[in-house]
């Protein structure tokens, strides 16, 4: 398992490392507000992708460059990543007049640092519309003194009014972290594991009910004219018509009829209708 050293550039109170006063938000932004936010997000990204990390400057206090390098070297980290925000002249010059964009700074010796930096620049360029300033070879303390491949990212300009505001934009911080994490994954040929989105439980789509023939309507109430039963009528000796009891079936009625016929001369079976 590869060990990645994560360095967030400066302490919160490192002198001079802040934007000019930003009227829109009524304050300065310290460089470390951005650096440490991206470092934290990148830490989570890399752990999710199966890497171990070591933080060169935990907490908000200032750590010397020498101590940052020592932490990475002592831990025998495989890769050193430092997160920064650039500055040129320390003042806002107006829209379109300030420098802008991101860059990856490496030791002039190149090597694996250059390979990783090029992969990272490719991912950053895919992920952000910010200007791509590419890979810059430069003598810097941390990239020169770490024993592993090392890249120092400058992800925008503090003295560009528009980019200064991006420093505190969570979406931009996240984007920088995700693209650098993708680069680490590609560098080590492991799949990038995206953050799992909260599962949106969609209501199961119910297949439409098959068309059914309507259920036969069971009528409780018999319709007028339906046969209710059968009555057997007979004429008694006195000549009066008598009703025998009601029978449900014709068969029963006829049976009764035959019986009565043996006693009475005239027996009728009559349908009873509703
Ligand atoms: Zn910096």
Summarize the structure in words.
It is built from seven helices and nine strands; from the N terminus they run E-H-E-H-E-E-H-E-H-E-H-H-E-E-H-E. Strand 4, helix 3 and strand 5 form a beta-alpha-beta unit. It is rod-shaped and about 140 Å long. The mean pLDDT is 87. Zinc ion binds next to loops.
In short:
The protein has 274 residues and is α/β, with parallel strands linked by helices. The chain has helices at 31-48, 65-74, 111-127, 141-145, 161-166, 170-187, 250-261; strands at residues 3-7, 52-55, 79-86, 102-106, 132-137, 150-157, 227-235, 241-247, 266-273. It has a 6-stranded mixed sheet, with helices on both faces. It has a 3-stranded antiparallel sheet with strand order 8-7-9, covered by helices on one side.
Layout of SSEs?
Elements: E1 3-7, H1 31-48, E2 52-55, H2 65-74, E3 79-86, E4 102-106, H3 111-127, E5 132-137, H4 141-145, E6 150-157, H5 161-166, H6 170-187, E7 227-235, E8 241-247, H7 250-261, E9 266-273
Bound molecules: zinc ion.
Zinc ion (ZN) is lined by residues 9-10, 17, 31, 84.
């Amino acid at each position: 398992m590869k060990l990645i050293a994560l360095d967030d550039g400066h302490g919160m109170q490192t002198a001079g490392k802040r934007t000019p006063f930003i009227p829109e938000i009524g304050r300065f932004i310290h460089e470390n507000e951005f650096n440490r936010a991206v470092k934290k997000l990148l830490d989570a990204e890399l752990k999710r992708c199966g890497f171990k990390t070591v933080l060169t400057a935990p907490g908000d206090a200032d750590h010397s460059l020498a101590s940052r390098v020592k932490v990475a070297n002592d831990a025998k980290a495989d890769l050193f990543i430092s997160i920064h925000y650039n500055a040129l002249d320390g003042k806002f010059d107006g829209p379109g007049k300030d420098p802008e964009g991101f860059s990856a700074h490496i030791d002039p010796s190149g090597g694996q640092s250059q390979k990783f930096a090029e992969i990272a620049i490719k991912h950053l360029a895919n992920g952000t519309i910010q200007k791509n300033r590419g890979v810059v070879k430069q003598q810097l303390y941390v990239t020169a003194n770490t024993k592993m491949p090392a890249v120092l990212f400058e992800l925008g300009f503090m003295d560009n009014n528009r980019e200064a505001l991006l420093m505190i934009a969570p979406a931009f911080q996240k984007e920088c972290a995700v693209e650098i994490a993708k680069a680490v994954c590609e560098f080590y040929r492991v799949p990038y594991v995206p953050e799992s989105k909260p599962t949106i439980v969609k209501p199961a789509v119910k297949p439409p009910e098959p068309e059914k023939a309507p259920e036969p309507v069971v009528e409780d109430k018999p319709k007028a004219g339906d046969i209710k039963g059968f009555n057997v009528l007979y004429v008694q000796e006195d000549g009066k018509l008598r009703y025998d009891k009601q029978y449900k079936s014709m068969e029963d009625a006829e049976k009764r009829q035959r019986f009565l016929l043996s006693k009475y001369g005239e027996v009728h079976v009559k349908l009873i209708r509703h």
